Amino acid sequence: MKTFRPTTPGQRNKTVESFDNLEKGQGPKALLAPLNKKAGRNNTGNITVRHKGGGHKRRYRIVEFKRSHVGVSANVVGFYYDPNRSARLALLNYANGDKSYILAPVGLKKGDPVECGPQADIKPGNALPLQSIPVGSTIHNIELNPGSGAQLVRTAGASAMLLGKEGKDAQIRLPSGEVRRISQQCYATLGQVGNVEHEGRQLGKAGRRRWLGVRPANRGTTMNPVDHPHGGGEGRTAGGRHPVTPWGKPTRGFKTRNNKRTDGRIIRRRSKGKK
Description:
The protein is mainly β. It has a domain at about 20-200: CATH 2.40.50.140. About 5% of the residues lie in helices and about 25% in strands. The radius of gyration is 22 Å and the shape is globular. The chain starts with a strand and ends in a 7-residue tail after the last strand.
């Protein structure tokens, strides 16, 4: 992390992640795709996610979440910044001439060999099915269903642990503390996602958040009754009721999960106090 001299109020609390080990430029053009801004709106133009909009223009990096080069050796060409995620990307050059991005794990270095498949070595960056990974290993980039591509544990500094194997399933402890059953045919990548210091960054000023596409949020107590259940009243009020969303749904302790299809896959709910 880089810190700055407090020459302005924004510089006083600002921290920036180091980019010293990253390659310059946007990487191979074949792995870039256009990315249109949604501003929190759906296909009919209605706002479905509040407080989004603006921000710097971006291009999408095509990341190989579904490791398709099984049995093909590759080397790490370099590491790149991705404006669409907190993790860094590692550019792989395969023996057959293909190039692809993967999430860069802790410990992976430029020039290191990377493999994918049941016979791959147990080392950071290699992807194997859960049935081939030893119990107790630290993993990330985990598939929910075989062949679907990685969906779990992809943020900077995140990692899960393979607790055990029973029948056709493996038990995974996720970063939230939740223990979930996942098919042993699903692929996962060994190691912890890199850029661990991302959690400690401080934006320092409101404008930097706007660059990221986050618009200001307004408290319900400052609104009118027509806009929010907490609005209205003479002077400053506390809302006069338990905290709710603008649409009246409780916001503290109210269970909103509604996915009965996967309820049976969860062995233990996430730990209290973790979001």
